[in-house]
Amino acid sequence: MTSITLAQAQTIVAGTLKEGRALSLKPLSVVVLDAGGHMIAFAREDGSSNLRPQIATAKASGALALGVSSRVIGEMSIERPTFINAAAGLNPAGIVPAAGGVLVRDASGTIVGAVGVTGDTSDNDEAAALAGINAAGLAA
Amino acid sequence: MTSITLAQAQTIVAGTLKEGRALSLKPLSVVVLDAGGHMIAFAREDGSSNLRPQIATAKASGALALGVSSRVIGEMSIERPTFINAAAGLNPAGIVPAAGGVLVRDASGTIVGAVGVTGDTSDNDEAAALAGINAAGLAA
Amino acid sequence: MTSITLAQAQTIVAGTLKEGRALSLKPLSVVVLDAGGHMIAFAREDGSSNLRPQIATAKASGALALGVSSRVIGEMSIERPTFINAAAGLNPAGIVPAAGGVLVRDASGTIVGAVGVTGDTSDNDEAAALAGINAAGLAA
Amino acid sequence: MTSITLAQAQTIVAGTLKEGRALSLKPLSVVVLDAGGHMIAFAREDGSSNLRPQIATAKASGALALGVSSRVIGEMSIERPTFINAAAGLNPAGIVPAAGGVLVRDASGTIVGAVGVTGDTSDNDEAAALAGINAAGLAA
After folding, report:
1. Which positions are tagged coiled coil (chains A, B, C, D) (predicted)?
2. Coil, strand, or helix at residue D107?
């Protein structure tokens, strides 16, 4: 398998939002990008604020841009703030250095896309993303 | 009703893609924006190319920016190319002057959002968008 | 007098919108900028679409940028499209090359600001702007 | 009520500036945005400096972007500076993380727009915004 299908992406979105409701999180926005960083599916729950599409996308796109989760990018941004700042300026979708952007891999470990979630705390956003990826039978 | 809910937006997306398959159209991308131009839901069918998310969004966002469908904007762009070009540069999401971006109105005629579709001919893109809006019981 | 006061700008806005209603124009947006191109007052009538603030501003700002009305810029854009296109890219607020952006002068002929109107045809937009400037006892 | 009308927005602006004069604040700039972040009304008092339109707008737009007041965004920017910095880069109007950007809600609690004020201290800017919202019979 070399890319996430729309059917898989929609399963990820549904699984992420189901987890958000199960955990009583604030309204979430969730995006699924392919390995090239191009959007496959997106959903913004009622009450999720205006910039959430861009924040979700910048978490996922940043993860693909640097090859690590946005949680790791958050850690890098503390140690090397000028590097992450500069990299964010180079990425058309930007980079948000906070947990919630998760790389998706196939059975062989190849990166096939990324999921980005925003709306609650970064830790909760990431937990919902992981639940969504799991619902689709894929690996983070 | 004062805005499109996520449930309605997902119904619009599903209805649009169902129409695309019924008409054997090329792979489609479809976006639903709220009245402020912020994304609620998006789907890109397998095989739909990289820039389709931005093109779908620029059709729908352009319709909201100028208050008319992207079909009318396409006509305006022939009569007044410099005006539409300048307006496109002012809209953060850009403006694509071709059919497929359709305003959505509530029962009172108030604009509550817009749908953007791309992937086949502009006429077919618009037909699929209209089918999606109809599937959600809303008016174009 | 060297600049438009807020009181004068609000009189221009009110006079412009009054003219729009008297002529039964579509919903208008109107901006008043000082000679430096910085906004003093703005109003968008109910039903005026999302990008109208930027379009009104780009008409008025363009007039100040080149020292002629946006009507003249529209004529220039036909004769010298690449020049106007390039200039638009240099102006942070952009340039919209269509009537409706009018320079405002004091009794000595010095430019003290500009008015930008959008929503109906360019000719009607300009007529409303001129009525607003007249209402404030200033000269176009 | 599903959106702020121009009449309401002009009442908010007048109420904000009246409060500023009652409290002898420095010259203020005040903007009212709809729920999508698009400008409805704006006024800049005589003596208010050049960038005030953008600062007022970035306070109000930032509040809508993240779904909280710009006062809260100011607190977030101390705890999570890289997140707010990144989000600011994603919002076309930017984000100013300081008090003075206040969300406006209708009777049902739905966000219908935002007010942004700048010119004096952030606390005073916010007090003037709240007075303006109150003058229009709306809730912060």
Report:
1. none
2. coil
